[in-house]
Amino acid sequence: MTGLLLKDILNMKQQAKSYLFIVIVWLVIAIYIKDSEFFSGVMIMFMMMVPLSAFAYDEHCKWDRLGLTMPVTRFQMVLAKYLLTGLVGVVVSVVSTIVSVLLNGKPGESIGTSLVLFCIGVIMASIVLPLIFKFGVEKGRILTISAVLLPIGVVIVLSQYAPGIASAVGIYAGMSFIFLAALTVLTLAVSIFISVKVYEGKEL
Prior knowledge:
This protein is mostly helical.
């Protein structure tokens, strides 16, 4: 399992400069508009960008066929991608929290925002990953964009046409982090179960 995770991390080193450039650009924009939440929200996208790149490398190198000739189960192959996603999520959450504290000077609020965004990122990734295992990277990219734009679109529509509902949802979400955390764990568990079943039934 550790070897699978390390393999994905080493592959990502080839794109490290590109990722760093993106982070710097977002950071400059966040500083310019003085909005740390913008930076935190965009950073969560890395939770799906990095796994997508890992899938793309695997498909290009036909890794799945080679990997399964080793003493590795399909469950471990699937779990490695989820661990990679979680690791990226933890890293970007820490970075987002540090940037938010530096810009706002409010540690408690910054940590709370990062935790909420981390949960949202995990939920979004949990929706996308089974679809990537099923349909592959190319369709997965489209599905990832859809998974990101759909909730954003819902928020915008509620804010414009149903501000009362949007406010109620915001207040409820703010008071129910435990519920959000429980939903995140449940969604992740279901996602892993589905991905394992899909991958076990997939011909490579």
